[in-house]
Amino acid sequence: MKIELAPSILASNFAQLGSDAQQAIEGGGTILHVDVMDGHFVPNITLGPPLVKSLRKVAKVPLDCHLMIENPDLFVPEFADAGADWISVHQEATVHLDRTLHLISSHGCKPGVVINPATPVEMLTEVLDLVHHVLVMSVNPGFGGQKFIPNALNKIAALARLRAERKLDFRIEVDGGVDLETVADVVKAGAELLVAGSAVFGHGDIRGNAAKLLEAARAAVLTRA
């Protein structure tokens, strides 16, 4: 599987969002991750369809919209119309997950499902054939800059095994605490879509930060078991 970096714009400087996003892409980012929080499912409020629509005008890469919200079915059409390419919803926030994933597909977007740190991989066995990607949260969602939760590695590895056993082709994404210290372990466990916010936008040269993180991730591929 191809290793890809998905810079999380939540950690960017919103006063210069277009410029920050472009620098991350120039550093090797091939997806932009958009964290959508409603203040109910998670204790924070962030971005909505208007920002996605604005970002769509300047970004030529896929927009990966991660809906950390209650009642996501109500908002899937809006995010699709705004220009989202991928839309992921939380297993924990979705009553009829099968239906929601089909709803996302019906609006021309690639569907993904997300699991929180306390949710076991087994909760997804009935929908793995429906999704484009599975996002493993390696922090408790709601805020950027948190420390990586090591047990996420076991969940990534379990998903990789399930994918091979069932001959499926969903991609494995990880979000939370991905930086130069953790990225090698994440990749060795089986993840290939790497969401990084603070490690890219939090300090120094955005372009250089993205390039270094992607270089470290790709180097780790060579040491996978």
Give the integer mean of the pLDDT values: 95
Radius of gyration, whole Å = 16 Å
The beta-strand count equals: 8
- Major β-sheet strand ordering: 1-8-7-6-5-4-3-2
Low-confidence spans: none
Number of helices: 8
Specify the structural class.
alpha/beta
From the structure provided, what is the oligomeric state, counting identical versus distinct chains?
Answer: single chain
Give your account of this protein's structure.
- This protein has an eight-stranded parallel β-sheet with strand order 1-8-7-6-5-4-3-2.
- The model has no long low-confidence stretch (mean pLDDT 95).
- Helix content is 35%, strand content 18%.
- Helix 1 (17-26) runs parallel beside helix 8 (206-221) and helix 6 (183-189) packs across helix 8.
- Helix 2 (49-58) links the parallel strand 2 (32-37) and strand 3 (63-68).
- The protein is globular.
- It is built from eight helices and eight strands, in the order βαβαβαβαββαβαβαα.
- By secondary structure, it is α/β, with parallel strands linked by helices.
